[in-house]
Structure formats: structure tokens, C-alpha cells
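Quick one: structure for this chain?
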Amino acid sequence: MANELALKYGCNPNQKPSRIFMADGSELPVTVLNGRPGYINFLDAFNSFQLVMELKAATGLPAAASFKHVSPAGAAVATELSETLRKIYFVDDLELSPIASAYAKARGADRMSSYGDWVALSDTCDKATALLLQREVSDGIIAPDYTEEALEILRSKRKGTYNIVKMDPSYVPAPIEQKQVYGITFEQGRNDLRIDEEMLKNIVTESKALPEEAKRDLMIALITLKYTQSNSVCYAKDGQAIGVGAGQQSRIHCTRLAGNKADIWYLRQCPKVLSLPFREDIRRPDRDNTIDVYISDDYEDVLAEGIWQQFFTKKPEVLTREEKKQWLSTFSGVSLGSDAFFPFGDNIERAHRSGVAYIAQPGGSIRDDHVIDTCNKYGITMAFTGIRLFHH
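Got it. Here's what it folds into:
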């Protein structure tokens, strides 16, 4: 190991020189095993690695994340995948280890956003995970270790240039962190807040129901938000984030964006979507894009233009607005986390439309009573954590 690593350039090609280094002269806790990761790659790598290690610490389960532009497109822990989820994640032909299952879920939550992602694993990357990654479009991976079989598979990816990074899991960063903006140095205490079930004890709604699965999903949502560019909201279900709204100036826009992604995740499981007659030669990314169009309200226009022939063996039936509304009415048991308080009840109204039954947020708005009343109207359980999770 060395105490610095030169990079090709910074965020953009004109930003040179660029490097990562240890200011105290100690060795970098990271080793590049293949490829040449860039500035943004390492921002994604270090943020995502923290996320998955915290997810594993909080749940005891192997965890994975799919990162794009310094925010998670998806994050998940290893749980059993249903046949439906295996199909919509395009892994029904693979044997999955626990860590491979976690990554299949992390990438599967929002496959369009995960295109060209950075991958983070809490556990050793094994052959099953490498085989899954081999056929997906991805920029690189960070993990505490790799099996020899996994390394051989990953090193063959992208004509031998795939970025493979090994991170020392025992590394402990300094308690004070710094960064520069406009030549001015900022300093703050590192956000080493531990997120666990203790945060969920202050339930402020009439409904006090909070099953173990919901506690797990709320912790996943909150830990995901800790490494998502603010403002941010996260919907979670079945041990994974299913919709992340990042970097919006208005919280209702976060809630809508994340809710729309959660709706798409659930609509992909609709029987009419599962049975789409795709041509055999259509690649997975093109299937993802086509499914997204099929689910949208614009698909009837696409059908009228005859574009369907590029993707399907026969003309599929339209998924009508009424059918989508009916399917989404069965969406339930969703957990939602917010990195700061909800200022208005409209956020709860939107969350309810996407099956949200459990919420964790800091509280502290002058309109908390209105937000609580809106939750009570729908029988939603809401906990005030008292903790803000901004990340910039």
C-alpha cells in the first residue's frame, strides 16, 4: 500500500492534477486490484462501502449497494428472493449466494438508474456475485475481499479494465473530517451516528404496530439516507430500498420521486408486465428501458407509432391507467424514511399512495400535529427519531 494514488483527472477531464492521499502520511486503506478508478469512482466507493458496512452491522445480514453520482440507486440486505423478484431482476437463471442476492436486490430496485453503477459489498465477493456482475453494465466494485474465482471473472470484464477495489474493513477514519470548497477549508465531526432500533421507540401516532420486518426496513431506509445527497427520502420493503429520492430542494419532490420509483418497482411485478413477449435478442438494458416506457402513460402513443416491433414478438396489450391503479391499490407494508422532518401532510398523502404503512423521520416541524393527523387518517405508524441525516 501507499499513502497516495494519482488519478487520471478530477470530476471532469479539465480538473487536473487529481489524487487521493492520506494527509497524515499513513498508508491508504484501499488497494486497486484492477482498472484505474477515477475521482467520482472513489467518491462512490467510499460512500457506498460505509453504507453496506453499516447495514450489515445494523441487521447482521450481508449487504450490497448500487451507487450512481454519489447517491445510492439501491441498497439491500440478503434475504430469500421470490420467483417474481428473481424474474424482474433477471437472475432467475442463476444460483445466488447471500451476498449475490443482496446485490441482485440492490441493483434490481431501480435498474435504469443502476446502469453503469459502482458496486459495494459488505462481504467477500464470491463467484456467484461475479457471474451476476459479469453480464451487467457497471463501472467498478469495492469489497473487503475477493475469491480467486471472482477476481478472474471480474478482471475479464470491460476488456480487462473493470475497476476492482479492495478496502480494509478494519480501517477507522479520523473523528474530524475536512473538505475544501472555493479554496476554503470546512471541518466537522464525522457522522458516526449509529442507527438501530432504539431510534424507532418514540412512536407518535395512534397506530403503534411496528413488526420486526418493518423495523429492519426502516433501518435500511435511514442508513441509506445517511449516504444519499440531501434532501432525500427512501422507501423500503422486503429488506431493500425500492425508491430513493435524492438531492431535491423540496421534500415533497423527494417523496414524489422516490414514490414514483417504488411504484415502478411494484408495477414490474404486475402479471401483464411479467408476460411481455420480448424478442430473444433484446438485451437486459433495452428490456429495462422498454418496460419503463410500457408502464408509462405514453405507451399508447408508442404503440401507435409501431415501435413495438423492435422489441416484441407480437403487439402487447396496453396496461391501462385503470389496471395500473388497481394493481397499485394492492401495494402495502412499505416503510419510509426521511432525512429531515416532513413540513406538511402532503408528503404522507403521497406516501400512502405507494403502500407506506411505517414511517421514521426526525420530527420537529411546527406542523408535526398535521403530519401526525394525516398518518392517523390512514392508520400509518410513525416514529420520531429526533435525528437529522443530511449528507452533502
